[in-house]
Amino acid sequence: MRKVTLCLFIFLLLLLPLTGCTVNQNISDEERLVVENYLSRVLLQGEDAGEVFAAVKVLHRDELSGKMEVWALVEGVAMTKEAEINQGVSLPVVLWTAKGDAGFRVTGHEVPRDGADYAQDLKTLFSRRIQGTLSSFSESRELEILEKRIQDRISRRQQLSMEERQAILSAWQFVQHQPWEGKDRIDPMQVEFRELSAMPGMEYWGQGETWRPLDGDDFGVVLGDSSSHQFAFVILDGVTKEALGFIPVE
């Protein structure tokens, strides 16, 4: 019996290095949306960034600890007819994630420092199994795929008028500044414009945290899937396109 137990123990020891080399790159569409929305908010900040788009490649994921290692491409697009990219970052990121009753969310992140500290931070922050991938990713086909995904989203925006694009940007920036736990699950590429003149007596929750009546020039921008609860209904001033508040999701 002892001999059998010893043989089993040796077999498991031999198996550990093999299982330890497995790289988990699984991510659902909803999780990808949450991650990309989070990174577009935290990696490029400020009004000068314009509309920010992010695309990620998952390099490794430990679902038990919630650690996710990704390469992120994040680009800010100017509000011009040509939709010029005026800011951008391309770098590896460690994300800390969690799952609960409210669904998947990102709780924090770490990025390597610039300059002389970069190489050391790659070794410290990221798994040994992806070190080779990190060193060559910036010249890989994978980065071109991320760039194409962002360009596809920019092309979809260019099909809209400048006025519509400005309205979307104002509404999305408003959403990103709210303390809503589920805001990263809202897909900003799903957009509806609502005329509010046919909604007499409707009120919305204003910036001053008070109920305010709709004005005749106000209009609504719905971001996300309005057939579910993953959306935001933002009220904008019809003249300035400034976000005034929102209609709560029931």
Automatic annotation (TrEMBL):
Q: Where is the signal peptide?
A: 1-22
Q: Does the keyword Signal feature in the UniProt annotation?
A: yes
- Keywords, in A-Z order: Signal
Name used for this protein in its record: Lipoprotein
Q: What organism is the protein native to?
A: Proteiniclasticum sediminis
